[in-house]
Amino acid sequence: MGFFSRHSNVYLYVPNLIGYARVAAAIYAFGVAFTSPYQCVAAYFLSFVCDELDGRFARMLNQTSTLGAVLDMVTDRLATTGLLLVVALVYPQLHVVAICLIFLDVFSHWFQMYASLAVGATTHKDVKSKSWLVRTYYGNRLFMGYCCVSCEVLYLVVYASKWPELMQFVVPLPGGAGLTIPAQMANLLPALLRFTSQSGLPLMSLFGILALPGFLTKQICNWVQLRTAADQLIAFDLKKKPQQKER
Fold it and tell me: Rounded distance, CA 46 to CA 33, Å?
């Protein structure tokens, strides 16, 4: 039994080692978030790439484990929470929005995890949910991947908009047009001007536009998942009561 196959030291499974590296990259990203924006974005992106690699290596090397599954999920939640906290610090006016997104993310996934454990499922990824949206989300890896990546990309774009050096890369538009917003909207939300350019479409703004549908779908899915998981927990309690009476 070699290092690259299933062995007794779960802590040293390759996907778990990737998970540890992911945690380290995320912590580094947050540590330099207010001094080195390029390094922050690069380190967080590396952390997110590791999120894709750990699952692939776990399946490829037959090194799946409960420790790895929990490490993956908890790191997902903490990394997203950390990024949203950075966004809240960069844009204090968005702190309530960031807090609500954190609450929805943590509530929906922990409710789903506990509901899955209560019914004896081996994973929180509910492909048999009553909701077609949740079934589609967990049943189609490409769709789930797009939604998850979209959230992280959108948060990174909002963070990047604070740094002119990250917004300087522009995609030319036909006719030399630029991306502008109405004056009234600019007066109401001056921070939106950071996403505009007279010489074209800022690359970060393009990423944000492409990520917006996936971000919205992910938030809807989180809410539906929270509701269905809560229903499962209530049903689980109601099912236990008759059994307790019989005893």
Answer: 14
Per DSSP, 1 falls in state -
Q: Active-site positions?
A: 76
pLDDT(191) > 80: no
Residues in the chain: 247
For residue 105, give the nearest of 133, 147, 53 by alpha carbon.
147
d(CA 198, CA 190): 16
- Reported pTM: 0.88
Burial class (CB in 10 A: 0-12, 13-18, 19+), 212: middle
Measured CA to CA, the distance from residue 90 to residue 165 in angstroms comes to 15
DSSP H or E segment with residue 220: helix 203-246
Model confidence over 47-101: pLDDT tens digits? 988 988 998 999 999 999 989 989 999 999 999 999 999 999 999 999 999 999 9
b/e 95-127 (16+ beta carbons within 10 angstroms → b): eeebeebbebbebbbbbbbebbebeebeebbbe
